[in-house]
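Handout, section B. The chain below has 258 residues.
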Amino acid sequence: MSLSNATTALSVNLNKVALVRNTRPLGIPSVLFAAALCLDAGAHGITVHPRPDERHIRPQDVHELSALLERDWPDAEFNIEGNPFHNLMDFVRELRPHQATFVPDSEDQPTSDHGWSFPADADRLRPLIAETRALGVRVSLFMDPEPDMMAAVKAIGADRVELYTEGYAASRDTSRADSVLRLYADTARAALAVGLEVNAGHDLSRDNLTPFLRAVPGVREVSIGHAFVADALELGYAAATREYLQRIAEAGRSAVRP
């Protein structure tokens, strides 16, 4: 395997676009138009996290985005995130996205704030991972940066881990920054060593993306939503997309090899 972070894909999470739209019954801003602008500007994929309470992305959005990508951007990745014990599996079975990211959210959780734990979650996840992969859908598990957990993730059949990066973002400009970043790098190496691929997401931004990718080997994809949409409000979707792709390119020129 010859992975470097020069191969890192950008998947834009559109949840916050839907959140703004849902405050008024006008259908604006359009989630579909946002997706089209980002993909036209070079984004590699689209991520959505449809929660059961429909506070942002709604089922209709998921179906319409799936149809849009299949029709106009067949090479772009569609990543659907969510808890497989809530509503995620219905979308996976019907739409068969490129990737399903299993996240252990509770139904009333404001945002994702922790990863799966092993061996506690192994037995109940294993059959859903097997079903999802049998449908031709890649499975990524949302995980905290814990190197010792990576072998257990591989053992239950997942294809990838998505490293939960809020801890990294929160540690920036603190005395813990270097040690926290080393923990993410160690976790990525542990994942790669057992044959997993690595994604990352949560609180990544224009300011912290490049140093993360420089230090953490083999990151195949970053999923970025909150900071991206905040930047898009100021720069526009296309310009924000290009900014993030530039940050990825900068990291790739000096990326750590697995």
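Note. The beta strands are 9-13, 45-48, 77-82, 99-102, 138-143, 160-164, 197-201, 219-224. Compare this with the example in section A.
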